């Protein structure tokens, strides 16, 4: 009976084994399935992947271990991708362009020759910076007036870049930078940063550079911007060909051109015409100035001998810019110049009388000066007034004159040259002649000298004896004879005596004579009206009314009056030194008989400090860059004072400043007040970047007068502060089921530079480390780009950068890291490992003998990944250890299935095929089943071995992220789980530049490499088998990576400028200066 029972058990066992091994193949075909993660997520391929490159490998498993055939389905998919049917390697057949197509839905297939499984993969085309920025709406040109204020936006350039991230973020700059214009790096707004001047520059050709912000290979585009400056009427006219001092001959006919007065409008864009007028100094309107042409002509007859014209003219003329309708504008300029009247010989000498008569005694001695007032004058000047004086006529030799040679004017004295004798010549008549070289220029006067007879001879009878005969009857009273006596006696006793009374009749034979030929007086310009200037005095040798003198001015000046009787000159009008510095007046002295004499009065006006210094502009602008190392001129200003020296000597003082007053200095250079900054300024400490100064101009008068003017100094920012993130490292957690496009974090950087060009507004953010996240380049918002899967990658280390608006070497960068940890969600069912299970059990094995260990793995964490095992349906021959736990990340929980064999006498126990079901505690309705066939268990007694153990790899520093460095080869002589290897980097990867495939042993780059930062890496790789806990074995390999250089850094000069001095005799090819540069090694 026992033998029979044993035979029955063996039959059952054989039947069971036969059923287990044959039944699955005979009843149904189990289809293959894909193992690649991207069928449930997405797959990223960068657009610069070359045609023919392997982009991935399809992995699939067939439960029946049938050979698999891979393929790709669809017309579009087959145009772009090819699949090697046996290996599943996917190749790229056509170039990708993310800007044309950024996403593909590709259907791949796997077949076991009995059935086909298809899976759709969302292939995302990763962006590569392969597009340069493109400018829109070209060409660029703009016209602006020269008075455009500083900080005014004048134009906006527009450029876009279809790339993503930093490669699509465009920054604008000028190449080279312009001292007059700035461009907003982010917005492309062009603004004026310095005052423009059409008269200096009429236009600017600027080159705008649009550069994307890709850190590896930035691309740029250039475009021209033409800025035309239009003229504005902002400048006063200016006289040219100064000075206008000139001479004119007094005999010039009216209408003669004296001088051309020319002024020009300094606004050269559309210069206006000039109108000319005479402001002052045009005595008797003797000159005419053409309003349009500026021709100064003679308007009347000149006579240098006229006292009004003899000293010349000080003319002040004004040039005024004319509006289009010929009306005067407010823009004007004045100038003063002297016109000297040149003498011509147009006057003959003139005596002060046409006839001179005199009676003198015949006893006048030789040398006696005749009491005659003879004056001769030639009104010309210089050589033209030279003449000779002599006597001519009968008996003129009895007299002599002096002087005989005269220039200008002289008093002539006639003296007796020979003894006079009334008895011989009782009267002399001769001529007095003044003669110039030119015969027609002569002066003539008659002289008559009558001798007075003196008793200088005694009487002498004509006969010594007179005889007469008379009749005796001669009547009494009859004349007897005449006795004639010649008066020729000298004896005093022989004299006759008689009284003679002669009454003289007064004649007006004397003219008034001034005590001075020229009276000089000086008055301050602020002298009070009514002040006595001086008193002129003229005397007249006549008596009575003929000797009474009255005083008059030859014309009627508006500033002075003269007392008719006393000659007292009084100031009648206010003086102004700036309008007239001297007055020359002609005074007439007239006696009672009408005789006149002229004299001159010169009144000099003395300057008084009554004019305040006046600045040429109402305000001044200047600019300076912060951090200027040496003294720099900021602006210059000028004030004028209409007073005369020393009252008009001006000094400048800086009286106030809103900040940094001690940093400024003002000095006088060529009449200008030059404001300089003596120490470097800090833009960040200047409110609004503007410093307001007040400058005072003070004259040298006593007391001094002053005025002030505002000066605005604009400080330009230098990029001297780097961006700084609010945290050097951001650590956050997010659930793995966060939706695509959700906000993860806002990073924020600050820049102490205060300007828009270099400060906070200029910051551009960029992100490196993973394509799963996107960073808004302006706001710093980090968002997800697709769905995340903690089981694929649980932690992301991102590098964020903030760059300011600097260009080239001046650009500054701030760096921070973002550590993102994904929180687990129970989103994965358990999965069986190494199914189907085949176990060989020795018959007659005792109860509780371990038959097989089955493994179901749930990649979720903690409780989400805990697995509970059970036999379903229950089987009386088998029990399972349903222990559950909380394994670590990616760890597995294993359980032991115990097979209890019931002793049926001598028959072998019968095994039943057991389905195993793994369940999660939450009760998710997800399960997997497996059939087992018993066979012998492997013991983990082999150590993983790398072949080779040392890898030497060379990489270019320009390789992209996720670039395959090498594929490791490691073998384990065990079988099953004991031969399943996991790879880890345990050394040399402190900064996380590389990763290794957990299962495939493929080493890839995580971020971009930089040879200049680190040129080599030595990685320690460990391979750990999946043997039972406590008996796992580890193999080690070393990977040496050498990073090769690419030309990604440009040279940098160590200085902004280099200066040297050389002799002019230096020979050719001589080295004059060495210009070192700092370049990253190539």
From TrEMBL:
A Pfam family: Cadherin
Membrane topology of the entry: Single-pass type I membrane protein
Cross-referenced PROSITE patterns: CADHERIN_1, CADHERIN_2
Region forming the signal peptide: 1-27
Keyword Calcium: yes
InterPro entries named in the record: Cadherin (IPR039808), Cadherin-like_dom (IPR002126), Cadherin-like_sf (IPR015919), Cadherin_CS (IPR020894)
Biological processes annotated in GO: cell migration; homophilic cell adhesion via plasma membrane adhesion molecules; sensory perception of sound
Keywords: Calcium, Cell adhesion, Cell membrane, Glycoprotein, Hearing, Membrane, Repeat, Signal, Transmembrane, Transmembrane helix
Location relative to the cell: Cell membrane
GO molecular function per UniProt: beta-catenin binding; cadherin binding; calcium ion binding
Residues covered by the Cadherin domain: 45-135, 136-239, 240-351, 352-461, 515-615, 616-725, 726-832, 833-946, 947-1053
Cellular component aspect of the GO annotation: catenin complex
Biological role: Cadherins are calcium-dependent cell adhesion proteins. They preferentially interact with themselves in a homophilic manner in connecting cells. CDH23 is required for establishing and/or maintaining the proper organization of the stereocilia bundle of hair cells in the cochlea and the vestibule during late embryonic/early postnatal development. It is part of the functional network formed by USH1C, USH1G, CDH23 and MYO7A that mediates mechanotransduction in cochlear hair cells. Required for normal hearing.
Name of the protein this chain belongs to: Cadherin-23
UniProt lineage: Eukaryota, Metazoa, Chordata, Craniata, Vertebrata
